[in-house]
Amino acid sequence: MKNIVILTGAGISAESGLKTFRDSDGLWEGYNIEDVATPEAWEHNPVMVQQFYNERRKSVLEAKPNAAHYALAALEEKYKVTIVTQNIDDLHERAGSTNVVHLHGIITRSQSSIKPELTYPIDGWQIKMGEKCELGSQLRAHVVWFGEAVPMIETAAMICAGADLFILVGSSLAVYPAAGLIGYVDREVPKYIVDPSILSVNVRGNVIKIQEKATVGVPALVNELLKN
Fold first, then answer.
1. Catalytic annotation on 92?
2. Per-residue pLDDT tens digits for 132-160
3. How many distinct helices (H) and strands (E) make up the chain?
4. Do 187 and 116 fall into the same domain?
5. From 69, 92, 104, 142, the catalytic residue
C-alpha cells in the first residue's frame, strides 16, 4: 500500500471561512501577532490572550470541513495516508481523516502553562481564567506560539522522508520550520502542489503544480489517485 503524506496550510482552512494566520497587513483577526501569539503576550496580558483564543476556538467549532478536507479523507480508502498540518483547527479530523499530525497544536484542546505536554479536552469553546492543570498552572490554548519549540517537527520530518507520494495544499512554504519539511521528501517521489498562486517554490525533483484553490484542485487530484 502506497504511503501518501500531505502537508496542509492555512489555504485549505480559509475555504471553510477561517482567516489565514497572517493577513497581508501583518495582522491576525485585527491583532498584532506579537500581542496574542507569543509567550511574552501571555505573560503581559493573559486575560486578553485567553479571550483571543476562545474567540478563535468558537470560529473553528462553527466552521465546517470543505470539499478538500473530505477528499483527503477519502484517500484512506486505498492508501496509507498521513496528514501533517500547520493548522490549529480540527477540520481534517471532522472530515474523517484518522492520522493527523498537528505541528502547531490544536485549538480544541488546552494545555498547562508550565508543561506543554499536559493537554486536556475542552468542554465547550472557552477556557476560563482560574481553570488549572494538575500541576496548578493556568490552562491555555494548545497552540505553539512564536518563540516556542515545535515539538512534532522531528516526527513530521521522518514521516515526510517515508513518503511514496507527497501533496502540498494551501501553503506558501513561508513559515519555518514547517516549510523545510518538503526537503525531507526523496527527490524521485512525485510531489503535487495545490495552490491558486504557486510561486517559484524551490523543490527538488518530480514536481506537479496544480494552480487551483484547494476545493477544486484537491478533489480532482484525489479522483485521479483513486482511479489508479
1. no
2. 999 999 999 999 998 899 999 999 999 99
3. 8, 11
4. no
5. 104
Reference 13, options 187, 222, 207, 218; nearest CA is 218
* Buried b / exposed e along 84-99 (16+ C-beta atoms within 10 A): bbbbbbbbbbbbebee
* Domain annotation covers residue 29: no
The range of the structural domain enclosing residue 226 comes to 1-18+63-104+149-228
- Could you report the per-residue pLDDT of 113-133, keeping only the tens digit for each? 999 999 999 999 999 999 999
The answer on 153 and 48 residing in a single domain is: no
Number of domains in the chain: 2
Domain co-membership, 53 together with 77? no
CA distances from 86 to 43, 83, 132 (A): 24, 10, 27
**Residue 43, all three cell numbers:** 505573560
DSSP 135-173: TSPBEEEEEPPTTS--TTHHHHHHHHHT-SEEEEES--S
